[in-house]
Amino acid sequence: MPIPAYEEFCSRVCAHVRFKPARAAISAELTAHMEDHAAALMDRGLSPEEAEEQAILAMGDAGELGRAMDALYSPFWGCLRLWLHRALLLIVVLLLLLAAGRGGTALEEHRQRAAAIQHLEGQIGTEALSALADWSPGPVLSAGGYTLTAERAVLSGGEERTLSLLLRVRHSPWLRDPAFLRSLAGEDDLGNRYRGWYPDYPAFWEMDVSSAPSSPFSTVCLVEIRSIPAEASTLTLFYDRGGYRVSFPLDLKGGVAP
Amino acid sequence: MKKQLHPPLSWRHALRRDLLLALLALLLAYTLLDFPCFTGLQAYRALERRYLYGPGEILLTAQPEGAFWSRYYVARSGGLLAWGGVGRSGPLWQSDGGAMGFVFEDPDLPLVPLLLDEDFGHILAVVSHDPRIVRVAARAPALLDQGDGFHTWQILDTESSQPENGCFLLQFPAGPLDDVPMTGNWRSRQPDLVLLSGYDAEDTLIWQSPAPDWSFYGLTP
Known about the structure:
- The complex is a heterodimer of chains A (258) and B (221).
- Chain A is 42% helix and 30% strand.
- Chain A has 5 helices and 10 strands, in the order αααααββββββββββ.
- Chain A has helices spanning 4-14, 23-43, 48-58, 62-72, 75-128; strands at residues 131-135, 138-143, 146-157, 160-170, 185-188, 193-195, 207-215, 218-229, 234-241, 244-251.
- In chain A, strands 1, 2, 3, 4, 7 and 8 form a 6-stranded antiparallel β-sheet that branches. A 4-stranded antiparallel β-sheet of chain A has the order 6-5-9-10, with no helix packed on it.
- In chain A, helix 1 crosses helix 2 (23-43) and helix 1 (4-14) packs across helix 4 (62-72).
- The longest helix of chain A has 54 residues, at 75-128.
- Chain A is rod-shaped.
- The N and C termini of chain A lie far apart (87 Å).
- In chain B, a hairpin with a 2-residue loop joins strand 4 and strand 5.
- In chain B, 15% of the residues lie in helices and 35% in strands.
- Classes of the chains: A alpha+beta (258), B alpha+beta (221).
- At the A-B interface, helix 2 and helix 5 of A face helix 1 and helix 2 of B.
């Protein structure tokens, strides 16, 4: 219950404050201050009426206090801050509306991404039907803000084998579309080199890399390396560009006993 | 002590709330704008990182007219020369767009060309390893519009005498609908159809690239 004496004092103070939106905050602050003071006085043995009166008196002259508050809450800065707040609110609301509007597109994009990943996983799944080995190599590489995990490796074929490798690449949203994946190359322990897009190696279509983003933070990539001789037991995938030389070896037997 | 259940916010609290709102707005805008970059260089560095290249020493920065990308960079790192093109959308730069190309740097070769944009701006960057070379001229076959709707194969020349860190930018004076084939090898993307010549301050020819084969176009370099 608000105490009428406090309310009356506050309204006398606020009468001097030109910036009206600040009056409620000033009243609340003054009232809280007087209530605290009165409570302390009552603890010392004063009656509630005496404590209220003393607390109001301690605040000093309402006119003087009002003018000081008016200087503190100037209408110019007050209005500026108020409009700034309203503008900010409007911007946030507009952005939220925009986000809601893009929700449909984002959902569609998510569906397309999921379908692309499903396609890649389906491809490796098909290879797995005639697999000589099917295993999960695990984390293989960390470089330049990218962490690569080989989630699944499938070795299939006869005299000439095909290695299908499903990689998940984790990254920040600023490093989406890890373009280096398209320039990965391979070399087996017999010295044969495998490359998709590179002028240096004659083997042109022996390696194929397809990737699809799964979120702003990760990309799924399917690497297919064909025409691997049956005698090859390890294959090293590497990327070599100015400043970066990264590689990771894969055991072609995949842990399966020969 | 009695207190209001929901006292009006003090100015300090209001300021804190507004700052929080501003932060939220910025975060939302940044996400909705698809994590853009604020400068071209920032976008180029992001591009380098996506190709696990560099960071390269920037040799040239260019914004040629009619080019596919908004800005091009030529850089050097680890024995490789690279060019990168980045895109702009409004005042911001795309962090996930762009393209890069690489050339092994042969220090014995006086001029090393990089094909920046064959289809739209017909642009080449040429890195010089010979400090005597102050002017670079390039010659290429071009299918040019005669103005009457007919196109004919002709020889097109361009030159540059304003290198930036030993790197010349050359743009063939052809429209976006004209064809200036600069590479005969779509895999390597090397401008092997361009005849390059480097001249010194006295206009003496210092070096010329091997004559390209233009017989397909019915032309001789």
